[in-house]
Amino acid sequence: MTLPTAALHDAAERFGTPLYVYAAAELDAALARVRSAFGPARVYYAMKANPNLTLLRRLNAAGVGFECVSPGELARAEEVGASGPQILVNGPAKSAAEYAAGARLGATFIVDREEEVALLPPASRALVRVNPALEVSTHDHLATGAAGSKFGVTLQQAPRVLEALRAAGHTALGLHVHIGSAIRDAHDFTAAFGRLTELREQTGPLAVLDAGGGWGLDADLHGIAREARAAASAFGAELWVEPGRYLVARAGTLLTRVVGTKRTGRNFCLVDAGMTELLRPMLYGAVHPVTPLWDGGEVGTWDIAGPACESGDLLARDISMPQPTRGALVAIGEAGAYGAAMSSNYLTRSRPAEALYEPGTGDGQDWTLIRRRETPQDVWAAEI
User: Fold this and answer.
1) Are 13 and 258 in contact (CB under 8 A)?
2) Beta strand ranges found along 150-193 (DSSP E)
3) Tens digit of pLDDT for each residue in 316-358?
4) Which of the two residues, 183 and 64, has the higher pLDDT score?
5) Share of the chain above pLDDT 70, in %
6) How far, in Å, are 196, 220, 228, 282, 337 from residue 177 at the CA level?
7) Quick check: 268 and 302 in contact, CB under 8 A?
């Protein structure tokens, strides 16, 4: 864990549970690791990982740009003061609102299909997203560079799309590739960059190669960076990268309290957080580290189960831990990415509060509340 146990207990007492907490120091350290590996490459944060405005302001102040994939994310980028070359507009099915907002903000568009060239605002800056048609080491739902994925243009189409951009009066900056998220095998990136460099004879030199993100949390960033720089060098291009999960996952922890136990065919530790707070285990089969924040009691094997009336509402399986007691705290780690961002109001559940841990800041308090817990009235406020 990236946060002291005492601090986690303090946060749960102050703000209640379920609760997302973030370590400011780990967020800063993750960005430092990226910059150490990728050097002068321009860094864009893939906002979908965690769009909390406090975290975005911190990244903006550190000179990080934003990759946005919805009108709401563009609005968040504008809210924290980003504009122009600080913003990328990505996505396979951009709306008219996204084109308009991107044009107004001076953003760079990532073209995802041939017909999109005709949809861009006049005189746009653009990259062409290339699908390298690779099978990669991640869950099928996270693989965006496979031949059957909905993302990007084919290797054969890419040179033609670059030419179409120029012919339409746009600035064709270069190529973009992103093969997925939580990639386990760094060789997947080597293969993807290799396929892009094969296009050099057809494209000629380019201004930018955007190598995306998707690195596993334990990835060899320096090795991946060497490959990315080599690919960019083949085009004479500036290197851009788009980390999302890598920057925020380990900074975040989901705190949840035990509400009871039961034994059927398995041992269940019932907690007050579930699929509405952390969907990744149910959606992707994601495995998050689990830390019981109590000592003593006979050690057994437990499944961590949430309150939803869904059989799939399990945060973890086969966790070895002491006998749970009502009110005890469980910490679900590596939850800073796609945790709060994917939380929902299913079952009219109020989305959890979020707090940032940064000792000695502000009024001397270690914790800052950065999102208040929703009330039921907040949940139905838009209904008429």
Assistant:
1) no
2) 171-176
3) 999 999 999 999 999 999 999 999 999 999 999 999 999 999 9
4) 64
5) 92
6) 8, 19, 11, 27, 21
7) yes
Tokens of 98: 């996204």
309 is catalytic: yes
Q: Which of 36, 33, 55 is nearest to 46 (CA)?
A: 55
For residue 240, the cross-strand partners are: 42, 210
346 vs 186: CA distance, rounded Å: 37
- Average pLDDT of the chain is 92
- This prediction has a pTM of 0.93
Provide the residue type at 153 as one letter: V
Nearest to 378 by CA among 343, 333, 348, 341: 348
Structure tokens at 292: 């019981």
- Confidence (pLDDT) at 145: 42
Pure H helices in 241-312:
245-248, 280-284
Whether the pLDDT of residue 182 is over 60: the answer is no
d(CA 162, CA 282): 39
* pLDDT at res. 219: 87
Q: Which two tokens stand for residue 264?
A: 């059927």
Q: What would the two tokens of residue 176 be?
A: 């973009």
User: DSSP characters for 84-120?
Assistant: GGGEEE--SS--HHHHHHHHHHTPEEEE-SGGGGGGS
Ramachandran quadrant class, 265 (left: phi over 0; alpha: psi -120 to 50; beta: rest):
alpha
pLDDT tens for 228-281 read 999 999 999 999 999 999 999 999 999 999 999 999 999 999 999 999 999 999
Choose among 189, 199, 107, 120: nearest CA to 153.
199
Q: Which residues have C-beta within 8 Å of that of residue 29, sequence separation ≥ 6?
A: none
Choose, from 309, 362, 363, 382, the residue flagged as catalytic: 309
- Phi, psi for 239 (deg, rounded to 5): -95, 130
Q: Rounded CA gap, 278 and 351, in Å? A: 10
Quick check: 49 and 64 in contact, CB under 8 A? no
pLDDT at 205 over 80: yes
DSSP letter string, 308-356: SS-TT-EEEEEEEEEPP-TT-EEEE-S-SSSSGGG---GGGPPPPEEEE
Query: Contact, 240 vs 211, CB < 8 A?
Result: yes
Closest by CA to 68, choosing from 45, 40, 52, 92, is: 45
